[in-house]
Amino acid sequence: xxxxxxxxLFTTLSGAGYGLLFWLGLVLLSGxxxxxxxxxxxxxxxxxxxxxxxxxxxxxxxxRPERAWRAFSQWRTSWLxxxxxxxxxxxxxxxxxxxxxxxxxxxxxxxVLAILLCLSSLLTVYCTARIYSCLRPVPAWHNRWxxxxxxxxxxxxxGVWLWGLLxxxxxxxxxxxxxxxxxxxxxxxVAVKFAYWRHIDTRxxxxxxxxxxxxxxxxxxxxxxxxxxxxxxLLKEMGFALARKHGRPLRRLAVLLMALVLPLLMAAQLLPPxxxxxAVMAVLAxxxxxxxxxxxxxxxxxxxxxxxxDAQPT
Length: 314
Known about the structure:
Blueprint: H1 5-29, H2 37-60, H3 79-103, H4 107-133, H5 146-166, H6 172-202, H7 209-212, H8 233-238, H9 244-268, H10 275-299
């Protein structure tokens, strides 16, 4: 598929934003866990900025952005519409939580809003993942690894953002908890990506004109002539081809940035002079890794319609 940068930016930023908001909701649900109110508000603002920036990027991808509001009417059948509804609901929860933090609302109100923040964040990421995993014509997306991959990457990248914010002031207990938990989250996310890559390399490949026509394996299909004489919409949007020799180095780069650079920076962050620089670099490294992974997610997806263009006319 054509890797549109606006959609890549949307899934990267909004995923990290909702992951950060999910962790912030858990922190607030536990009574703050030693996180100062100013840091709670900073985490909420950072998550909201990431989410809004991602949503704006997704709107920029639309051919007619002024008609985006019409997508909300299809929530009964469209995961894209459900994602929009969930995103609006999560924005309302963020606004209510921000007002509660600024006015010093009671514990009961904060707990309810914290639960809603956790649920709405996960629900929005879930809807985003289902937009792709429900597409049967794209085997690289229609599989069991897409949904957990989206959720784990969102939670892991959002956790890195919260861990970076903790470097600016938090309790030693909360900092220590994330020091122990975060590497395992990133490892789990990378493990799911390895399983996903293995799946698309072994099962999602092999789409041929013969298989699309229901012929026996190894059958040779020779069309009389090419479908058309110049590029069309299908080839432009769904005909992006990435050679395996280029895909593998990019996969290694994504893993390097997410799973190998992060532990080194977390270790460097223990040294007082490197505390803040290491935190900032860790966030940048993980976000860069997720950006590479997201680009691969689109670039390596192949629509089945392209199988009809593989056979050369005789």
